[in-house]
Amino acid sequence: MTDSSPGVRHGTPRKAAVAAWIGSALEYYDFFIYGSAAALIFSRVFFDDSDPATATLQSLASFGVAYAARPVGAFVLGHIGDRFGRKKIMVFTLILMGLSTFLIGCLPTREQIGGLAPVLLVLLRILQGLSAAGEQASANSMTLEHSPADRRGYFTSFTLNGTQFGQILATFVFIPVAALPEEQLLSWGWRVPFWLSVAVAVAGWVIRRRLAETPVFEREVAQGTVPKMPLAVLFRDHWRGVLRVVCAALVATVSTIFTVWALSYATSDEIGLDQATMLWVGIAANAVALVAIPLWATLSDRIGRKPVFLVGAVGSPVMMFAYLAAINSGSYPLIFVTGILTLGVVYSAANGIWPALYGEMFSARVRLSGMAIGTQIGFAIAGFAVASAAGIVSPDGWLGLRGWIGVGVFTAILCGISAIAVATTRETYRVPTEELGHAPVR
Q1: Residue 185 burial (CB count, 10 A)
Q2: Cα 289 to Cα 312: distance, rounded to the nearest angstrom
Q3: Residue 153: which region, alpha, beta or left (left: phi > 0; alpha: psi -120 to 50)?
Q4: What is the rounded distance in angstroms from the CA atom of residue 394 to the CA atom of residue 127?
Q5: Which helix (H) or strand (E) is 65 found in, with range?
Q6: Could you list the pLDDT tens digit for every one of the 442 residues in the chain?
Q7: Of the residues 42, 75, 222, 348, which has the maximum number of CB atoms within 10 A of its CB?
Q8: Alpha helices, DSSP H only, in 147-259?
Q9: CB within 8 A of 11, min separation 6: which ones?
Q10: Are the CB atoms for 412 and 400 separated by under 8 Å?
Q11: Are 62 and 42 in contact (CB under 8 A)?
């Protein structure tokens, strides 16, 4: 089905998809290098390493701080995006992310300025979170509204495909950094990936400023139907959709546990696996995801969003058990196989199609704010799941479970909530774009 209503102008889906892909890749390069640094370095640079376990917990918690800031950014940037346009948010978020990330690379360490160092680190991490809050929602809205109705899943998947590439790039940069002698690593080596974010801001601005606003938003402006207070409309008419997206977004726990906690756990003194090898596991899994995401998205354009998403939401925690068991076994071949299947294949089913699934729950008047607020609250919970996992493996355990098994159960519970939220929603893949959010399903 394609949009054929009178007056509906088609957008430029390929240009929008490319802009979303490149911008998200550059933006999430910045966001994910913090995750690698938090898992491998920051506990020794910014936190008191006289108690290594506490320092590691604090470092991982600083990773989650950005997720706490993201809901705040979602409210502010969501309002602006639905009131004044998607393009403005897409440009602003890249500049903010690039600047805050560069400044992290310039921070003095705890040894140099004491307790002020982690405070400054957390403040800049909050700015990263504010930026990320508007990035995906604006890019997804832009791409969805430029796309023909029968290929919305495919084109919107480019945003998440770009995110995966950004994670590959971030991990790739950290491999030679992690291989530096410890003295060089802790003095200047860890800073280099953060300094490279200057290129992020410049490249992102050049790419995104040339993209036209979406036909859907322009039509809203022409008809005078853009709400002055999008959030009021959102919570009056679409609060169920926001709540559903919050619950569905908990599936992101798979990504944060895989990329941050599992990396820290695998390279800890208890397990003792090689840092560079574990970073290569992430690269391999995300490289496979680059292929899997558009394939899953294309399938969702043919059979619907719900069945594809549920494959990821139900299958990912099962594979996470296998991955954590492989880490505990110390078998590198098994770690690579299970890691690729977990993050690269199964999780991609949910990760690749949520931009279309969530965006189709809202009308154009509140699409950006609805996606931003719903996803960022869910992602905030997923972000702090890293610190929760660190607590679960403590000697006291969690609900009688200890070690990686407890982390696996914790992940499965959150993914189960996500699966229920999506299983009980309506299917929207055949609804014309201009009728999304307020028309009965055909």
Answers
A1: 17
A2: 12
A3: alpha
A4: 30
A5: helix 52-84
A6: 444 433 344 558 888 888 888 878 877 787 778 877 887 788 888 887 777 778 877 887 887 788 788 889 999 999 999 999 888 888 888 888 888 989 999 999 888 898 898 899 999 999 988 888 888 888 899 899 989 989 999 999 999 998 888 888 887 888 888 788 888 888 888 899 899 888 767 877 777 777 788 888 888 888 888 899 999 999 999 999 999 999 999 999 999 899 888 988 898 878 889 888 998 998 899 999 999 999 999 999 999 999 999 999 999 999 999 999 999 999 999 999 999 999 999 999 999 999 999 999 999 899 999 999 999 999 888 877 877 887 776 655 444 455 788 889 999 999 999 999 999 999 999 999 888 876 443 3
A7: 348
A8: 152-178, 182-187, 192-195, 197-208, 215-223, 230-237, 239-248, 253-256
A9: 145, 146, 147, 212, 214, 215, 216
A10: no
A11: yes
Domain 13-435: CATH class, spelled out: mainly alpha
- The domain limits of the chain are 13-435
Q: pTM of this prediction?
A: 0.83
